[in-house]
């Protein structure tokens, strides 16, 4: 069988990327530091996935093993040397921590073979593979970097599947929604792009990244921040609140207008994409905690992220992003004590005042119309 190395044996790794790789003829070696999880995967050599929704389904996944990278670094090196593809689903903030081992394994691999290899970071961010590449290259010599440039691809990707926070009696069971999308940049691939069921290789990845980011992520965050202000605990309950849904639809109308004009998406097709996204959020089996969806407001308020970026681009097109400005204002009121970033933002507001905090976290120019809109909306909550 073809060999895949996947960093991250968590729910997304098992319930999304790992399952597609196995379905496509790969044996998957999950890499993780969770000893209990690693040992259980190695004991069973398989796990179950439950597709939850209107048409429930159970899938049994086999041809898997796991490597504890903390306890068995040599096993990891050998797996990297022999891999036909490497993927990750560990969270953007963890990419830098796997880079040293990945760099060491690639250096060993390149001494043994020049077979092309693609490494795809399947993270909820823009440019995840490129970021991982920059971390890996910090641990390589100039000669090794040159060889990686020739034989190792880091195709950026857009991934989309809701895998909610869950606690199951079976630690390996994963519950996921029916919908799944995985797109990768074919122009960044090395050799023949691997054929993986569920993975679409595209030439204009930016369009697919922004479509997902500004529809699914923007919508999810908008609902969460508005729900938090009302004391609503979960997304499913929030989707029963007419005022929240109406505002989310206004946000989608704004981002949809941007995406259609910028990338030429068919308006009717994009309308269906929005409607599918709304249905996904209404799935009672996938309801997520509002505080989990809203977490990390410092990152979500960033200039290139899901709220400020579409608002800035809309203004540049001559449109007023009123709904987005409302959601950005709500995000500045997310003060959940269990979220480090939320507390950091609140401390910034207390320390420097709202005006300065908005500029610091969003990088919106203080003399711009968008800044005035956001400041007014924030103060109005």
UniProtKB/TrEMBL annotation:
GO terms of molecular function: mannitol-1-phosphate 5-dehydrogenase activity
Domain Mannitol dehydrogenase C-terminal: 204-377
Keyword set includes Lyase: no
Superkingdom of the organism of origin: Bacteria
A single cellular component GO annotation: cytosol
EC number(s) given by UniProt: 1.1.1.17
Classification via PROSITE patterns: MANNITOL_DHGENASE (PS00974)
Keywords: NAD, Oxidoreductase
Known catalytic reactions: D-mannitol 1-phosphate + NAD(+) = beta-D-fructose 6-phosphate + NADH + H(+)
Boundaries of every Mannitol dehydrogenase N-terminal domain copy: 3-198
Binding site for NAD(+): 4-15
Protein family (similarity comment): Belongs to the mannitol dehydrogenase family.
The protein, known as: Mannitol-1-phosphate 5-dehydrogenase
Organism: Selenomonas caprae
């Amino acid at each position: 069988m073809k060999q895949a190395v996947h960093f991250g044996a968590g729910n997304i790794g098992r319930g999304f990327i790992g399952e597609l790789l196995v379905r496509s003829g790969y044996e998957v070696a999950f890499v993780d530091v969770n000893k209990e999880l690693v040992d259980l995967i190695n004991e069973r050599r398989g796990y179950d996935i439950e597709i939850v929704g209107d048409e429930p389904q159970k899938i049994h996944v086999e041809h898997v093993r796991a490597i504890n990278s903390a306890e068995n670094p040599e096993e990891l090196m050998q797996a990297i040397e022999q891999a036909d593809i490497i993927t990750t689903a560990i969270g953007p903030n963890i990419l830098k921590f796997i880079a040293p081992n990945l760099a060491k394994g690639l250096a060993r691999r390149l001494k043994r073979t020049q077979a092309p290899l693609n490494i795809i970071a399947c993270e909820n961010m823009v440019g995840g593979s490129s970021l991982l590449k920059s971390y890996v290259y910090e641990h390589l010599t100039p000669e090794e970097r040159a060889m990686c440039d020739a034989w190792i691809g880091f195709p950026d990707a857009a991934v989309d599947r809701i895998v909610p926070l869950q606690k199951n009696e079976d630690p390996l069971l994963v519950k996921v929604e029916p919908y799944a999308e995985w797109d990768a940049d074919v122009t960044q691939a090395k050799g023949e792009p691997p054929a993986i069921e569920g993975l679409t290789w595209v030439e204009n990845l930016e369009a697919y990244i922004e479509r997902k980011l500004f529809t699914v992520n923007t919508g999810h965050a908008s609902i969460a921040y508005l729900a938090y202000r009302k004391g609503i605990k979960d997304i499913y309950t929030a989707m029963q609140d007419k005022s929240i849904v109406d505002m989310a639809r206004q946000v989608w109308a704004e981002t949809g207008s941007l995406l259609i004009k910028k990338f030429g998406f068919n308006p009717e097709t994009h309308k269906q994409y929005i409607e599918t996204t709304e249905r996904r959020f209404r799935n009672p089996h996938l309801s997520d905690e509002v505080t989990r969806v809203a977490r990390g407001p410092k990152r979500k308020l960033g200039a290139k992220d899901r709220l400020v970026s579409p608002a800035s681009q809309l203004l540049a097109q001559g449109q007023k992003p009123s709904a987005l400005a409302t959601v950005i204002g709500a995000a500045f009121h997310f003060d959940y004590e269990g979220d480090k970033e939320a507390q950091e933002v609140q401390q910034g507001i207390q320390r420097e005042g709202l005006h300065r905090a908005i500029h610091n976290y969003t990088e919106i120019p203080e003399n711009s119309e968008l800044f005035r809109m956001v400041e007014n909306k924030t103060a109005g909550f």
